[in-house]
Amino acid sequence: MGREYHDDYRPPVWKSYLYQLQQEAPHPRRVTCTSEVENRPKYYGREFHGMISREETDQLLSQAEGSYLIRESQRQPGTYTLALRFGNQTRNFRLYHDGKHFVGEKRFESIHDLVTDGLITLYIETKAAEYIAKMTINPIYEHVGYTTLNQEHALKNQVQRCPDEPDAARSRNDCSTERLTSLVRRATLRESDLAPKYEKVHNFKVHTFRGPHWCEYCANFMWGLIAQGVKCADCGLNVHKQCSKVVPNDCQPDLRHVKKVYSCDLTTLVKAHNTKRPMVVDMCIQEIEARGLQSEGLYRISGFSELIEDVKLAFDRDGEKADISSSAYEDINIITGALKLYFRELPIPLITYDAYPRFIEAAKISDPEKLLESLHEALKLLPPAHCETLRYLMGHLKRVTQYEKENLMSSENLGIVFGPTLMRAPGLDAMTALNDIRYQRLVVETLITHEDVLF
């Protein structure tokens, strides 16, 4: 029973490199003026130093990366410059105010936000210029749901039309209500039948995303504090500005509410729905506990991928009204597969990138008591919504192990399944990720076994 289920491992859909860089970017450090400055504009604070020279500015900013101040130009009185320390040199930007602060296209409520966003942008563009230039080369756009949903919309129209064929007359009354799985659709319809019958250009608008967001074309993080990318006003597609130039003309206005459950940042999702945990987690676990706890190989046996995709699309379309009952999906492995898929597709894993190293370090501790103490401290690093969801999931998996005689799933086996699902190594080092798999398993196994103590 101790073998590792490597076939359950899937590489993450969402790429964390740019997210990690944003986390590493220098923080703003305001250099305050110690004396009163005459004629200071009312919309500037103590960061305003008046008409000082570039040399004096360099000296004031030399203490640390991210240091900044505002000065009045000596050459052009009445104009203002934001001076910012980055890359061990002073950068100077002409600063404007029209009710909001700006040095370029983006407008900010405060100088602090402007500097924060600027430091993030400078840091990422300095560290990852080549990476950013190649972001659009290997898109994941066709894999994240829009293409499938477009196809199903086109298919729905065909099914409702019920073309006149020899058997069509007999089944016409059932045509609009019959539930066809995507497997049957793909088996019975030609690829050309599944394609959308028209093109529509996306209506992209610059958008400020609240909470972390990933581009739905290239799967990379959308960095910055505001105006991180663009959003289609008609279908809701979120992409980088540069990616918007290569997105296919396949806008489907009917789909403006899709992708609000899967592939959405967990904290953003629970805030949007005002829930303690993501609805998909609660609903799947309730369904599994109602009829699947004694199912042999629960969570280890994979459900049929086409039907798992159906469940995902049902949640993305219908939210809490999604039907995942036994009448819709008799095989409980479809529901366990949909739950695992939800966690795999989280842009920031349930055990977050920031907390990941602490959990791995804890797993390497041989003393059982110190291991538990270290895990307890690591749990404090998780955002509240992540911690609550993890607590609920571990309680459920503990109940799964209580039926081990029937389902053959011990905490060790569940750790093997859920380790790589709930934890992903930050960065792009595949070798590190592979080496960490045994520690990921041990973390989850310990969280299950000692769920009542750790949470």
UniProtKB/TrEMBL annotation:
Domain (Phorbol-ester/DAG-type) ranges: 201-251
Record domain Rho-GAP: where: 264-455
Alphabetical keyword list: Acetylation, GTPase activation, Metal-binding, Neurogenesis, Phosphoprotein, SH2 domain, Zinc, Zinc-finger
Domain of life per record: Eukaryota
Single biological process term from Gene Ontology: signal transduction
Tagged with keyword Transmembrane helix: no
Domain SH2: 47-115
Record GO terms (molecular function): GTPase activator activity; zinc ion binding
Keyword Zinc-finger attributed: yes
Listed Gene3D superfamilies: 3.30.60.20, Rho GTPase activation protein, SH2 domain
Protein's job: GTPase-activating protein for p21-rac.
Name of the protein: Chimaerin
Organism listed in the record: Oryzias melastigma (Marine medaka)
